[in-house]
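Researcher: Please generate the 3D structure of the following complex. Treat every line as part of one assembly.
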Amino acid sequence: DTAVSQTPKYLVTQMGNDKSIKCEQNLGHDTMYWYKQDSKKFLKIMFSYNNKELIINETVPNRFSPKSPDKAHLNLHINSLELGDSAVYFCASRSNGQGVKVGYNEQFFGPGTRLTVL
Amino acid sequence: SQQGEEDPQALSIQEGENATMNCSYKTSINNLQWYRQNSGRGLVHLILIRSNEREKHSGRLRVTLDTSKKSSSLLITASRAADTASYFCATDPYGGATNKLIFGTGTLLAVQP
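Model: Done. Output below.
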């Protein structure tokens, strides 16, 4: 079973459109993240949710809006897409460590969504 | 920028050789982690070393940490073609936002068969 899954895997769209990326984890983790990896492979955190509550919000344009309907899901909606939004977006999750003896600091990543804005 | 630096940016070796990658970071940390990313895939956690540890081993991986120099190294011994990937260090800043990791710039390792 896939631990962290994302849909879609590829997304090609025109400038100005609105699009969403979905993420689901079946690990029972409490914390989920969105990262952006640019063409130079720099990986930067965008948002983090803990039990559906936003806890990290980096300097990200407000065109990006995360939503967590429950702790197993974290979606990312992007309005008015721009050329510079083209990147690979990764979802990740992490346990809070309660009841977990080892490995709770590590993050588990999804396969990524490659967004291309034309 | 808080982003860490890794060197070399790219490394090409023959199968069976050892590969060493270095990571430097800027802030005090709780722990430092290494991740691997195969082409077109997500990152996979390899190993974690806490700020009070100096060396850690896991299989063919050896990680060192020097907090006085704010640096870490990852050694892969007896490399295999399947080790070809990008390797990233990530720091968990001390006193920072809970669960936030800051990733380095990555080293692209190519192991020639």
